[in-house]
Design brief:
Layout lengths: L1 H21 E11 L7 H23 L1 H7 L3 H6 L5 E12 L4 E11 H10 L13 E15 L4 E29 L2 E29 L4 E7 L2 H13 L3 E4 H4 L9 H10 L5 H14 L3 E9 L3 E2 L6 E13 L6 E15 L2 H26 L4
Parallel strand pairs: 4-8, 4-9
Antiparallel strand pairs: 1-3, 2-3, 4-7, 5-6, 9-11, 10-11, 11-12
């Protein structure tokens, strides 16, 4: 009950931005068997605690395979200090199967997701590495939203083929004879002419038609959003996970023009991803400054809506992100995220947008470094 009261108090003091940015509602389930005729209060308390632990396990499972794989390294510590990670819990249902001596309980648990995420990052294999040995990650992320969309009508192409055939057949026969009689000084001339003509005409007309349809994808143009929190959030998350995060803006001046910030921005304004040639230049730039990894991606901001439950503004952000290993001649993808969606609430559109971007950046960085940890990168 104390944790429920604490949750309500914090919600009132910090408002929606706190609740939205650091709380995750997860269901927890537990069942225990008891030996007596009825369950006692101590056994009920144990079932309640087990359900809270189950909610934490479910939270990491929901975050994805990489978080689940890394959870084992912090599980004991988190479970031993579970009160630090749970802000409140309420009973959804409880059933006592007396004939089976089994008690089941279902809870709605409010988890402090920020602390749970930090627990994973702090336990990172990279986080245990001395500072001078920590791997460097260069990164560039943009937040953007659709500025315009151009649709193309379907184009129809018709094709017609005509063919004409004519067969002609004919014949002509002339037969004749001519006689001359001399009789009494008279001359008689007679002729017999037989003519035969045959002719036939056959024509045919064949027409074939067909066509094709051309469809073109909608072309989008994006507006890049200025967010001071974006670079800071990624840099802080990488650092907390034990990596040295270096913004692309700090790398560009030392890259001999290979890493061109404005060129990358221009490409993100007109397409979903940057061009292969630009990626190749980035890889060369990283090799020049001896940074082995580079993370890049976009946070695509959707249109604001009104949340039907709270009446507050809600903004959704879809994330695509990739980390490349650029140490060798041919860069390779070692971790990719997305597209994944994250949302933020707030009394105004701007507050909701800030919360959504912060939440998306934090979760994306966590997922990226978790997958790096799976490969023992440090």
């Amino acid at each position: 009950m104390k944790r429920i009261a604490l949750f309500l108090a914090l919600s009132a003091v910090y408002g929606v931005s706190y609740a939205n940015g650091g709380i995750e509602n997860v269901q927890g389930l537990a069942s225990i068997t008891y030996s007596g005729h009825r369950i006692n209060s101590q056994e009920k308390q144990q079932a309640f605690l087990n359900a809270e632990k189950n909610a934490i396990v479910r939270y990491y499972a929901k975050e994805g395979d990489s978080s689940t794989a890394n959870f084992s390294s912090v599980e004991q510590s988190v479970m031993n200090n579970i009160s630090n990670y749970i802000l409140g819990a309420s009973v959804i249902s409880q059933v006592d199967h007396k004939s089976l001596h089994m008690y089941q309980i279902s809870l709605q648990v409010q988890l402090n997701s920020s602390l749970l995420d930090n627990a994973i990052k702090s336990a990172s294999s990279a986080g245990k590495t001395p500072g001078y040995q920590k791997a460097k990650i260069g990164f560039f992320f943009v937040a953007r939203r659709v500025e315009s969309a151009r649709d193309y009508e379907v184009r129809n192409y018709q094709r017609t083929e005509d063919s004409y055939h004519q067969n002609l057949a004919g014949g002509k026969t002339n037969e004749g004879n001519e006689t001359q009689n001399l009789n009494g000084g008279s001359i008689g001339v007679g002729s017999n002419d037989l003519r035969t003509e045959k002719f036939s005409d056959r024509t045919s007309d064949t027409q074939q038609s067909g066509g094709s349809h051309l469809r073109q994808a909608t072309k989008y143009r994006y507006q890049l959003l200025t967010s001071q929190n974006l670079s800071t959030e990624f840099e802080g998350d990488f650092s907390q996970a034990g990596f040295t995060g270096i913004p692309a803006a700090f790398i560009a001046p030392k890259s001999n023009g290979l890493l061109n910030i404005e060129e990358i921005k221009t490409e993100y304004k007109t397409g979903r991803n940057i061009k292969p040639n630009t990626l190749a230049n980035i890889a060369n730039a990283m090799q020049l400054v001896q940074i082995p990894y580079f993370a890049i991606g976009s946070l695509n901001v959707g249109l604001p809506i009104t949340d039907p439950n709270t009446g507050l503004k809600e903004v959704t952000v879809s994330v695509d992100a990739t980390i490349y290993n650029v140490e060798s001649q041919f860069p390779s993808v070692i971790s990719a995220v997305g597209p994944e969606q994250f949302s933020g609430l707030g009394p105004t559109q701007q507050v909701a947008l800030t919360n959504a971007i912060k939440n998306a950046a934090n979760k994306t960085a966590l997922d990226l470094v978790s997958r790096l940890n799976e490969q023992s990168v440090n």
